[in-house]
Amino acid sequence: MKLFLDTGDVREVKAAAEWGVLDGVTTNPSLIAKSGRGFRETVLEICECVPGGAISAELVATDYDAMLKEALEIHSWHEQIVVKVPMTENGVRLTRTLSDRGVRTNVTLVFSVNQALLAAKAGATFISNFVGRVDDIGGDGMQAVRETVEMVESYGFDSEVLVASIRHPMHVVESLRCGAHIATMPFKIFQQLFHHPLSEAGLKRFLDDWNAAGLEIFSKAKV
Q1: pLDDT value of residue 13
Q2: What is the pTM of this model?
Q3: CA distances from 194 to 53, 189, 191, 209 (A)
Q4: How many domains does the chain have?
Q5: Residue 24's closest CA among 57, 1, 48, 2?
Q6: C or N: which end of the chain has fewer Cβ atoms within 10 Å?
Q7: Residue 154's Cα: distance from chain center in Å?
C-alpha cells in the first residue's frame, strides 16, 4: 500500500520525504490556505520534495467550463501533479474529459460506493474515500472503502482506492485489511506509525546494557 502525506506544509513534506517511505502528497484548499503561501509555489515545492511522487492539487471552481480551465492550468505546472476534482456532477463530467486527455485525476469527497462507481467509470486515477468524517457522525467509514475496493477489483477498473480523512493509525491498519491501494494522512498520524511502547522499551534496554558494558563501535586511535 502506498503512503501519502495529507498536508500543505512544505516543512512536513520535507521531513516525511527523508524517511524514504513517502509515495505522494495530497493537498486541498483548506490545507493550502492554512500554509499561508501561494498555491502554485507550494505545490511546485512539494513536487521537488517528492521526486516521482503523485502530488494532488485541487481546483476550486464549480462551473464546468471554469473547472476545466483551472484543471488544465494546474496540470501544466508539473508532470507529477494529479488534478483533484470534487464528487459532483460537473466533477464527474470533468474527470471523464481529463481522463480522455490523459490527465490524471483524484476524485475527492467520496463517501459511498455509488459515488465511487461514478468516479471509476469516469476514469479517475484515484478515488478518495473519506473515513474519518463518516466515523465522526457515528457511521462506519471503512465500509465504503471495503465496498469500493471490491467494486474496483470485480469490474477491473483502473482506479486506485485512496483512503482519506484518516484520524488515527488504526485507520491505516484497516486500510491494509481492506486492500486499499493508498492511505493519505496528516503528518502527526504518519509519525505515530513508527511508535510502539515495546519498541521504545526494547531500545532503551539495549542502549542501557551497551553503555553499562562500556562497549564501542569505533576503536580508539592508537597513541
Answers
A1: 98
A2: 0.94
A3: 21, 9, 6, 23
A4: 1
A5: 2
A6: C
A7: 24
| Cα separations in angstroms, 115 against 81, 127, 188 | 23, 9, 29
Active site residues: 84
Q: Which pLDDT does position 140 carry in this prediction?
A: 92
Coil, strand, or helix at residue 105? Answer: strand
Residue 92, domain CATH: 3.20.20.70
Q: Which residues, 6 or more positions from 63, have their beta carbon under 8 angstroms from its beta carbon?
A: 90
Q: Does residue 141 contact residue 134 with C-beta atoms inside 8 Å?
A: yes
Phi and psi, residue 30, nearest 5°: -65, -45
- Tell me the Ramachandran region of residue 11: left when phi exceeds 0, alpha when psi lies from -120 to 50, beta otherwise: alpha
Tell whether 20 is covered by a domain: yes
User: Residue 41: which domain range?
Assistant: 2-195
Whether 175 has a pLDDT exceeding 70, the answer reads yes
